[in-house]
Every structure is written in C-alpha cells, then in structure tokens.
Amino acid sequence: TWKWVVGPMFLYLCERLVRFWRSQQKVVITKVVIHPFKTIELQMMKKGFKMEVGQYIFVKCPAVSKLEWHPFTLTSAPEEDYFSIHVRIVGDWTEGLFNACGCDKQEFQEAWKMPKIAVDGPFGTASEDVFSYETVMLVGAGIGVTPFASVLKSVWYKYCHDATNLKLKKIYFYWLCRDTHAFEWFADLLQSLEAQMQERNNADFLSYNIYLTGWDETQATHFVVHHEEEKDVITGLKQKTLYGRPNWENEFKAIAERHPGSRIGVFLCGPEGLADTLNKQSISNSEADPRGVHFIFNKENF
User: Which ranges carry the FAD-binding FR-type domain (predicted)?
Assistant: First the structure.
C-alpha cells in the first residue's frame, strides 16, 4: 500500500509547500474603493504576479483571522498594473476586513495603516478560453458577474490596442440579478464600455441584457413609466433593464440564426440549476452537421 500512497503524498506536500511559499510573498494594498451597498474593491500589487482573465485567488487577512482563506474572483484585467477583487460585506470575515481597511471611518486612511494581506494564486477557470471563439455568450448570475468584469476589461484593452488580431468579434452578455444592490459597481464598467464603443462607432461589438429577477408590481409600474427615457433609470445605460427571466430557447435560436456555421462559446458563472438549463440548450441548438452552428458550454458554479 505504501508504494501507492508515497507518490501522491509527495506531490501533495510539494503543492502545499509551493502554496505556502507564494502566500508568504509581500502583497501591497495600493487602493481601497468603497462602492455602494457595502461592497469594497481592493487594488493590490505583488511581485511576479501574473494573471489571466476570469481567474481567482485565495485571500487571508491575519488581522481578521490567522487561519481562514477565502476565494475571490479577480476583477482586474491582465493589462492593468495591479490586480483587484470586489468584496461584498455579507458575514463576519468580510465585516472584519471592511473594518481592518478603515472603511468604517470617515477620514482618509494612510497606506501604511492598511492590514497585511496574504494571497495564494491565481488559479484557472473556464473563462480563460473566451478568446478562443469569434462569438461568445457570457452569463452571470448575481455576484457571478465578477469574472466577466475581468473578461470585458481585457477584451476592451485588446480591442483598443490591436483590433485586427483579436479573434473575438461579438459578445452577448447576460446578467441575472435579484435586486438592484449589485448593479452599482458593475454598471459603472458597462457605462464606460458603452461610451467608448460609441466613440469608436462599434456599439454592436457588445450586446448586453440585464435581467432583474426579483421584481415586484411597484418596480414594474415604475419601469413602464420611464421606459421611453433615453437611459435606464436603474443602471444609467442605454440598454433598458429587463424584468423576469430570459427565454433561453429563444435567445439561443436567435444567436444561432445570426451566426450560422460558427463555434459559439457559452460561459456561465452561476448556480447549478442555471448550468443544467444552458447545457441542455447548448446541446439542443447545436447542429449535427460539423459545418453547422455549435454551442460549446463552459461553467463555473458557486
């Protein structure tokens, strides 16, 4: 038995040593941004840190807990000179991090007062393959939108730098959210992309649909009253917020008609139930003919 155990145990110990070594490397918090509804953005720097879109890291803050590690998706792009995460304050550990960073204080906090942070990673996800397709569908549910912040930033950097060599030509982005609390920080990114694409006369590069799934009659009435306004009253975007849930069968059929003979990447960050639905739609809307349209499903669940 020991012959079968020694090999895997040796590899496991090596992996743990590498992770311990990486976690001991110095991390500097360069900026803390407080977003609405108790969401904070930590911008950090670490020597030798290299990332790809959609990856995640494990974070430890000894000032909060000396043993707890928590995973967070990177929301920065590889082209930026820092890496960042967005943290929603929803529990004891995140509340402790919020206070340790001085976010509960009104006065400006000096950089040397920031708590020490240990970072392990980054680790890969399915979202890294987004640049392998000409057409992609990005589907985020709630906080599952975070990896696509990195993707959309990186796509735009690549597009501005060298659009002719960028294989990706069309993005269909779907965001499903129960309430408006998660809109603020991500809507700012979409507003920036929307404005820059219009300046470059390429507004069709990104098609996005935001669905508010936890709506009630009051919100629906308010939506009808303001529907004719130029910008959406919730997000400030030209694309109006939609209520309810998308009809995925109709969405897949419409995209298949617009891109015949294409390999379309479907990327999800969301719950298992939604993953099953999108997987079934990807299979049923793919043609048997190798020259026909094919939907390639990729997922990461939470």
Answer: 19-129
Q: Spell out the domains of the chain, with CATH numbers in brackets.
A: 23-123 (2.40.30.10), 128-299 (3.40.50.80)
Owner of token pair 């494990």: 58
Locate 72 and state its tokens: 């967070």
> Distance (Å, rounded) from C-alpha 285 to C-alpha 295?
7
Cβ-based burial of 211 (10 A; exposed 0-12, middle 13-18, buried ≥19): middle
User: Within its chain, how far is the Cα of 107 from the centroid?
Assistant: 31
Classify the phi-psi angles of 121: left when phi > 0, otherwise alpha if psi is within -120 to 50, otherwise beta: left
What is d(CA 147, CA 124) in angstroms, rounded to the nearest whole number? 11
Asked if 28 contacts 44 with a C-beta cutoff of 8 angstroms, the reply is: yes
Q: Kindly report, residue by residue over 128-163, the tens digit of the pLDDT.
A: 788 888 888 888 887 777 778 888 888 777 777 766
Q: How far apart are CA 279 and CA 274, in angstroms?
A: 9
Q: Nearest 5°: CA angle at 96, between 92 and 100?
A: 175
Q: Which amino acid is at 172?
A: Y
